[in-house]
Write a structure and sequence with these properties.
Pfam families: Pyr_redox_2. By secondary structure, the protein is an alpha/beta fold. It has 10 helices and 21 strands. Helix content is 26%, strand content 22%. The structure holds flavin-adenine dinucleotide (FAD).
Length: 403
């Protein structure tokens, strides 16, 4: 339900406005981004039903892109860009990766509307945003995945990566807190690019990568130790109760770690807390996940779907899975939008997925359904290029001369 992600260098989202415009439909106080109605690429047609997608991660972005020539699509995201999450760690050590991994929504949403604001309420007919818009919908798709504070604009996000990189270059010792996939990938990327830096990774669990098999965790541990990363298991660093003093961090086991810089790679909460005050509150399970049926429709709702990490489907939360959800809902919505008396909706069937954690730019560890693989081969698949080309292509973006 929760996943880890570094939180050290994040800034806050824009302040939420308490005043709510009562304008019907899409009538905000400021113009919203709109592209297409007078464009040669087609355009929004009168009479099209409106599909509102809340959340512009891989699930929501891909869905909005897929439906933009079939409906009046409105994407609501608190940031004006989509960030490829599996490239975030590498973006900190290699700025050219960040340039490719952070994509303005308007680059692929050429025939839809974009609202850059957090959604704060949902009624039976409207989504209300923090900046006071009331957006009516015929169909609604909730795709707010995991919550992580990020700047609103791409430029600021790129600057954050640059700042993190400058600090990293200056530091001679770096502490990484958390040994899930994020902490492991970050430690491995730092040590691959800066082999002379002293990297320490502290993890509260008995093994790294606790969300996959033992073997995978052991392989990652072996790899990191072979690169001189100091890995401390079964202890943690609590920055709140024990803040660092003079560059010394204390672990729960009383070990002192000297570090010039730290990265917190811990679990981040689901992006569903805001739903608890909405008309969808009854659709949340005890973990805050959105309960969906086999068509990815909310239980008891005719026109509301959910996709991606936020759903209660018992499967590993992964981008590859979120993309499959998008495809199923895109197909279902296209069928519903076409109308007809009896619309037969497609079903989503969870399947075993492969999980890969990169170890630097050449190696990786892969958890396959019945075995574990590590080294150069999985590294070839994931670590070298991090699926950047494939993900950008899924959004219809050209890669010429870029990758
Ligand atoms: C570091 C890292 C590495 C990963 N590596 C891989 C990998 O190699 N392979 C893989 O398959 N998966 C990987 N994953 C997992 C994968 O990234 C997630 O499963 C996937 O991103 C889920 O997509 P999503 O669209 O459901 O949610 P998210 O990516 O969490 O996106 C949610 C979106 O909703 C927006 N949002 C949230 N609340 C609101 C609101 N109230 N109003 C408006 N917008 C809102 C956010 O701004 C965000 O844009 C990785 C994850 C991380 C963090």
């Amino acid at each position: 339900m929760e996943e880890d992600r570094p939180a050290t260098y994040c800034t806050l989202n824009p302040a939420r406005s308490s005043s709510v415009s009562s304008d019907p439909g899409l009538s905000p106080r400021e113009p919203i981004f709109w592209s297409g109605s007078d464009s040669s690429r087609g355009g929004n047609q009168a009479g099209w039903k409106r599909v509102v997608v809340v959340g512009g991660g891989i699930a929501g972005s891909l869905l909005a892109k897929s439906l933009q020539f079939h409906a009046d699509v409105v994407l609501i995201d608190q940031k004006e860009y989509f960030e490829i999450p599996w490239a975030t760690m590498r973006s900190m050590v290699d700025h050219s990766v960040a340039e490719k991994a952070i994509i303005n929504h308007k680059d692929y949403l050429v025939n839809g509307k974009l609202i850059t604001s957090a959604a704060v309420d949902i009624t039976e007919t409207e989504v209300v945003t923090a900046d006071g818009r009331r957006v009516t919908y015929d169909y609604l798709v909730v795709a707010t995945g995991h919550s992580s504070p990020s700047p609103t604009c791409r430029k600021e996000r790129l600057e954050m990566f640059q700042e993190a990189n400058i600090k990293m270059r200056i530091a001679s010792s770096i502490l990484i807190i958390g040994g899930g996939p994020t902490g492991v990938e970050l430690a491995s990327d730092i040590t691959a690019v800066y082999p002379d830096k002293k990297v320490t990774l502290v993890h509260s669990g008995p093994r790294l990568l606790g969300f996959i098999g033992h073997k995978a965790g052991n392989k990652a541990l072996e790899w990191l130790r072979s690169k001189n990363v100091d890995v401390l298991l079964e202890q943690y660093v609590d920055l709140e109760s024990m803040p660092p003093a003079n560059g010394i961090y204390m672990t729960s086991a009383g070990e002192a770690i000297a570090a010039d810089l730290h990265f917190l790679c811990v679990k981040r909460p689901l992006g569903s807390s805001w739903l608890k005050q909405t008309s969808l509150k009854d659709c949340l399970d005890k973990y805050g996940q959105v309960m969906v049926d086999e068509h990815l429709k909310l239980i008891g709702r005719k026109n509301v779907f959910a996709i991606g990490d936020i759903t209660d489907i018992p499967e590993r939360k992964q981008g590859v899975v979120a993309q499959r959800h998008s495809m199923v809902v895109a197909k279902n919505l296209k069928a519903l939008l076409k109308g007809g008396k009896e619309v037969k909706l497609g079903k989503y069937r969870p399947s075993m997925s492969i999980t890969m954690v990169s170890l630097g730019k050449k190696d990786a560890v892969a958890q396959l359904p019945f075995t574990t693989m590590s080294g150069f081969l999985p590294g070839l698949i994931k670590s070298r290029e991090l699926f950047l080309r494939k993900t950008r292509k899924a959004l219809g973006l050209e890669n010429h001369g870029f990758l």
